Amino acid sequence: MCAPVIPRSLAKNTRGLRSQLKDSVPVTGMGPQVGAYGVQDTLRSGFSSVKNELLPSHALELSEKNFQLNQDKMNFSNLRNIQGLHAPLKLQMEYRAARQIQRLPFLQSSHLALDTLKGNDESISFEDILNDPAQSEMMGEPHIMVEYKLGMM
Amino acid sequence: MALSNVVETPASGFNFENVSRNVALEGLLEGGHTKAPKPMKTGTTIAGVVCKDGVVLGADTRATSGEVVADKMCAKIHYISPNMYCCGAGTAADTEKTTDLLSSNLTIFSMNSGRNPRVVMAVNILQDMLFRYRGQIGASLILGGVDCTGNHLYTVGPYGSIDKVPYLAMGSGDLAALGILEDRFKPNMELEEAKELVRDAIHSGIMSDLGSGNNIDICVITKQGVDYIRPYQESEYKDKRQRRYKYRPGTTSILTEKIVPLELEVVQETVQRMDTA
Predict the structure, then answer these.
(1) Whole-number average pLDDT of chain B
(2) What family is this protein classified in (chain A) (predicted)?
């Protein structure tokens, strides 16, 4: 993210502000749902609010969204330091292969191979109990889901 | 009906969609006077002591919801595995769910590996889980157990901090209970002495703290097995309400008895073979 442009007239009192803003970590993942022309798709996602896009509404929202990714990154970098570059590369290749054998997006796939690789078949956590996708109350329109997955939307 | 704004299946796990709605609602309802209902806390006294033959855990049985006693016979000592039990203080639902998850994970592990889980493994699983949720899960736990390496007593805080200690008290009545424990604890105590010490500690917590009360439960874990005494001591302010209104057989006396045999004759008999292989 580039540093913000502060008008000259206000620059007297905002010299400190610029350095503070430069040090802040850009927040990703809360961005708007981009539609076809790069702006908020109001028809699908409703009205947008700047606050909702920038700030997470709950303390855990961001950390939970990226938790699995961060764990994987940490584990892979540990593995690379211990065993060398080949170890995470081979594992990631297997993950990629297992991720490809899923059903179409609007159908439930069992993720059996992926779960076994990641070790999720030997543990129970809140992901297995709460909000089971097989019991979700909202059903998506099949054509739109497939188009979204193929990047045509 | 298929919705056209759902483009991918919702992720499993915690869902934060309603958080901003709840924050907005809190302010709107009757100009901020009405508040959301308070979750049931256990407002507790729990204590644990390591003795010569094993570990003794104790807890009171009151669960409060705000200023009302919600449950007079709450079970605060949860089963984790055949050799480990866990006392929970804090939000009642959080402690129950966390200990249930822990117990399920350890059962899967012991089935996979064929061994009894060690106490350190349970503590590490708890610590990872509670730290991941940054204290939003309000569960302070005392985990005690006996495994191949000895008798252990650990405390796990809601933010994921752990401590390994020979005697311990947690909950809102912990200061009173800790006073008794600090005064009379000796290393390598006998089992009966340890039970009396834990009972006295919980009793002082009940007397001095509003959030603890009613009966005392004791759980003794040794190498031979577990003795879960519920209740160990009942409060003298128990009310005489009957909890079950089912009458035992023999309450109504039988005056006369007359037996009339029903005569049946066999008209037709068919045999169907069942294939039980």
Answers:
(1) 87
(2) Belongs to the POMP/UMP1 family.
